[in-house]
Amino acid sequence: MQDFLLDDTDRAFRSEVRAFLQRELAPRAADIEDRQNWDAVKAVVRSLGEAGYLRLMFADVYKGTLAKPGLTHATILSEEAAAINYAFETTIATALSCAYPLHRHASERVREAYLGPILDGAAVGAICVTEPDAGSDASGLQTRVEFDARTDEWVVNGLKRYISNASVADVYIVYGATPAGDDAKQGLTAVAVPKDARGISFPRNYTFMGRRGCIVGEVKFDDCRVPAGNLLGARGDAFRIMRGMFNFERAILGGSGLGVARSAFAIAREHAQTRRAFGQALGCKQLIWDKIAQMSWRIDAAELITYRATKMYDAGIDGRALMKEAAMAKLVATETANFCANETVQILGGDGITKEYGRAEQLYRDARALTIVGGTSEMAKYLIASRDLPDLKINL
Ligand SMILES: Cc1cc2nc3c(=O)[nH]c(=O)nc-3n(C[C@H](O)[C@H](O)[C@H](O)COP(=O)(O)OP(=O)(O)OC[C@H]3O[C@@H](n4cnc5c(N)ncnc54)[C@H](O)[C@@H]3O)c2cc1C
Questions:
Q1: Per-position DSSP letters for 30-53, written without gaps between them
Q2: Where are the domains of the chain?
Q3: Average pLDDT, whole number, for the chain?
């Protein structure tokens, strides 16, 4: 479609990153998918960092050519990367989710130690929220982050699961509960934990149906100690930090969904025009025509909704004022990715479920994670309706 919410600068940027990713990511995509080669992932992260693309969200440290870099450009980057390899793209999203609290809430020493290397692509970060008994309900975290005044350290105890980049990340942003103290109420606290801290371990990695090449596993903390200065923001105030991350994370996931949807649609269109059945191109059949039309309008709707959210964010609208639009971007684009990947497999018939015919089956497997990660579709719907029914309290 003519992406009319984007201006000429945004479109030129899209062409630039598309060419960059064709050069750096496309030749490594099969290695990432088929051999789950982390070194290949890291090499592309490094080149993205060196080119300045991991700084798009942080205008004060940005060094590139855009006059006003922002979420729109970070989302374009995600969309273009996900169109080639969604597993790889998750490392960009995770890098940004990690960089955001470091950039806004870390001490100068911690920023220097971890933020710069992540933005340069020299280091990788991870975000540790989810636990065995606390997923969608992040208010129920059982990991404890407690202050030991004797040693002037934060002490972390608990188990996190489904953590992207577990064991390969250099730094972990860990969210946990802090009990009430003399001068503070009970609340969530976030600390930065380096990979080599004593007491951190990585019990296991998961095998997923899709996103192959992105390492996801458990992270365990046994009396894991970090200096007092590794605190992010204020003690007991990490829910605010987490909330600040949600809007941009959801918009970026809109970009991920769009990338996957677009790639699937391209395969479906090609097949509908070249495959012959009953004496005609397959695409002439009414039921196939309908599938093409449905994919087409859903992708356009997802694109409009996603870039509406990014443009609002770049115009300074955030927090509650952006919650509904950001949740819509995540919901519509990730559901569209699943719809398109599923219909593409159907249009391809047997070819759709083999590895012989392009990436249809990979996109189908990859898409499935999108409606779960970064907040499920169900949670996104609660956020949307909560703005439409402001006087009702939702029964979660
Ligand atoms: C590949 C992958 C990578 C991930 N990376 C990270 C990461 O880097 N860091 C991190 O912290 N987490 C990560 N996660 C975790 C992810 O954020 C959670 O899986 C997600 O938030 C859902 O939590 P859950 O899996 O515990 O499911 P649950 O919360 O148990 O939900 C199960 C189902 O019930 C539904 N549900 C829950 N509550 C309600 C309700 N009140 N009403 C209706 N339906 C409800 C959910 O929508 C879902 O469909 C990752 C997950 C995956 C799969």
A1: HHHHHH--HHHHHHHHHHHHHTTG
A2: 8-119, 125-236, 239-388
A3: 95
Burial of 356 (0-12, 13-18, 19+ CB in 10 A): exposed
Helix (H) / strand (E) containing 71:
helix 71-84
Q: According to the model, what pLDDT value does residue 393 have?
A: 87
Could you confirm whether domain 8-119 is CATH 3.40.630.30? no
Å from CA of 131 to ligand 1 middle = 10
Question: Between these two residues, 151 and 356, which has the higher pLDDT value?
Answer: 151
CB 173 within 8 Å of CB 94 = no
Domain 125-236: CATH superfamily, name plus number: Butyryl-CoA Dehydrogenase, subunit A, domain 2 (2.40.110.10)
Half-sphere exposure of 355 (CA within 13 A, CB side): 5
Residues in the chain: 396
Closest residue by CA, ligand 1 atom 6: 163
Look at ligand 1, atom 4, and give the residue with the nearest C-alpha: 162
What is the mean pLDDT of the segment spanning 38-58?
Answer: 96
Which of 162, 172, 202, 335 for a ligand 1 pocket mutation test, highest count of atoms within 8 Å of Cβ? Answer: 162
Number of helical (H) and strand (E) elements in the chain, helices listed first: 12, 10
* Residue 263, pLDDT score: 98
Atom of ligand 1 nearest to the CA of 165: 8
**Strand runs labelled E in the chain:** 125-128, 144-148, 153-164, 171-178, 187-194, 200-201, 216-227, 231-232, 276-277, 280-281
359: which DSSP letter?
T
Q: Which CATH architecture has domain 239-388?
A: Up-down Bundle (1.20)
- Ligand 1 contacts (CB < 6 A) are 94, 127-130, 135-136, 162-164, 208, 211, 216, 369, 372-373, 375-376, 378-379, 396
Task: Tell me: pLDDT of 52 over 90.
Answer: yes
Distance from residue 319's CA to the centre of ligand 1 (Å): 22
Q: Which atom of ligand 1 is nearest to the CA of 378?
A: 47
